[in-house]
Amino acid sequence: MSDVTITLEQLRSHWQGHRALTRRTIEAFPDEHLFTYDVGGMRPFGKLVGEMLRMAVPTLEGIVTRTWQSAGRTAPVSKRGLLTAWDEDTARIDLLWPQIPQGRLQEEDVAFGQWPGKTWWILMYVIDNEIHHRAQGYVYLRALGIEPPAFYER
Amino acid sequence: MSDVTITLEQLRSHWQGHRALTRRTIEAFPDEHLFTYDVGGMRPFGKLVGEMLRMAVPTLEGIVTRTWQSAGRTAPVSKRGLLTAWDEDTARIDLLWPQIPQGRLQEEDVAFGQWPGKTWWILMYVIDNEIHHRAQGYVYLRALGIEPPAFYER
């Protein structure tokens, strides 16, 4: 075990820590700005969170079941709806996580039939994409004069 | 090895992939905006890159040597200076990486005498902080009417 970088449980906890921070970022947005406000012509934060929701559980389901299904998920269009979906997915991730097959993160796969790579990379891409777009939300909040949640708290 | 999530070499490659993207983001900034332009009263991108430089190699040196030294690094104040420092650190990371002691990422430590945790977490924090602040740079670029580099290219 001495060559271990990050255990599977640590990776789950790392992701859920980021997800808790993203949840606080959603909460910090005023309802009226979540789906309308942007800087530089980029997507409003509510749309970016919709993308995160469309990626997270479907990716984990693909890793667990080796079947990739993205269809059927429509993102909520209200703050309450986003937060409810977020919490449902948080529970779903904790439920699915122990079902990741042994050694699965080192297997090659093609996520959603489009993105080839080892599944650890696909999973890290989802986490990194969340960090990336959440940071965009931080700038929107600052531009609106609102203090974003502390980055170092998870 | 079947319980491996991410190997040490994959983690190096993952980080260097992000660093290559951050380098392209620095390159995309016009000289005159790098240390002056901001949105919402946040730090200009050049300052954020300075923070990344102050964190990256000193953290890896702390992980490799078990000695934490942040003093003595002053961040460059020009685009050319940032890119040169970035490239030097990219080479330094590749040089230091194989010197990470066996099992070290699962050891507890206190980074720079201030931040306690397992060293994998400290390292991931540095990577996540880079993703977070680079995304801020993306918003600045868009607000300046400049297309940022593609997020999915590493």
Describe this structure in words.
2 copies of one chain form a homodimer. Chain A has 154 residues and is mostly helical. Chain A has one domain: Up-down Bundle (Four Helix Bundle (Hemerythrin (Met), subunit A)). Chain A is 58% helix and 5% strand. A two-stranded antiparallel sheet of chain A has the order 1-2. In chain A, a hairpin with a 3-residue loop joins β1 (108-111) and β2. In chain A, α3 (45-65) runs antiparallel to α5. The longest helix of chain A has 25 residues, at 119-143. Chain A is globular. The two termini of chain A are 27 Å apart. The mean pLDDT of chain A is 95. Chains A and B meet through α1 and α5 of A and α1 and α5 of B.
| Adjacency order of strands in the biggest sheet of chain A | 1-2
User: Quaternary status of these chains?
Assistant: homodimer
CATH superfamily of chain A: dinb family like domain
User: How big a fraction of the residues of chain A is strand?
Assistant: 5-15%
SSE order of chain A, as H and E?
HHHHEEH
| Category by helix and strand content of chain A | mainly alpha
Number of helices of chain A: 5
- Which chain pair has the greatest contact? A-B, 43 and 43 residues
Portion of residues in helices of chain A?
A: 55-70%
Cα shape of chain A: globular
Rg of chain A, nearest Å: 16 Å
By DSSP, the count of extended strands of chain A is 2
CATH topology of chain A: Four Helix Bundle (Hemerythrin (Met), subunit A)
CATH top level label of chain A: Mainly Alpha
The description of the largest β-sheet of chain A is: 2 strands, antiparallel
Termini distance of chain A? 27 Å
